[in-house]
Amino acid sequence: MGWLSEIKSKTPLVKICCIQSVEEAFLAMRFGASLLGLVSEMPSGPGAISEEKIEKIATAVPRGITTVLLTSLTNAEEIIRQQRRCKTNAIQLVDRSKGDDLRKLKDSLPGIGLIQVIHIAGEESITVAEEIVSFVDAILLDSGNPNLTVKELGGTGRVHDWRISARIRELSAKPVFLAGGLTPENVKSAIETVKPFAVDVCSGVRSNGYLNEEKLKRFFAAIKSATKP
Length: 229
Prior knowledge:
The protein is of the alpha/beta class. The protein is about 35% helix and about 20% strand. It has helices at about 20-30, 50-60, 75-85, 100-110, 125-130, 160-170, 185-195, 215-225; strands spanning about 15, 35-40, 65-70, 90-95, 115-120, 140, 175-180, 200, 205, 210. The strands form two sheets. The chain has an eight-stranded parallel β-barrel, surrounded by six helices. Helix 7 (about 185-195) runs parallel beside helix 8 (about 215-225).
């Protein structure tokens, strides 16, 4: 399982995405986030910040926290250069790269986790996941549409069909992250349905664009309640 192989947890890990500042990063960690999503330039969606700010956040957080660069780039050389500028210890590929590019990323960035986003659109998403899973360390199931003129590559706030996500999780040999419209009100049901390795949330724990402590508290409490014996 690559860089996730030694992580053992009775409850799903939590990735708080769209982190905007060092202060937000430490707030997310205080509530229990294991991964922090740092969004670089995107064709659409919320939360994008400059590469300079990503590097500042990534180098400020303690070891043991996974900082995840979200990139819409698909060319391996461009992604490698971006990661080296941003200094994160994982990359989330929100668009599709070719197999050769994925192999080059693994060879050129040893120790850097690769998370591939699969946008759940229907039964065909299962085939897409099966084709890509061997190239990466984990897959992240999200709501989006990369086929639009202006691509939707995440951050939609929409829930997709969790039954398809559950089937992908059952078939996957790699850890599966679940994203897409998760909130304190629905994350318990999402976990019970999909049983993901980790959950990923952005807008569901924010108010007026900022992390909301009360929503964070309720989100983490819902996760714990979903995994009680």
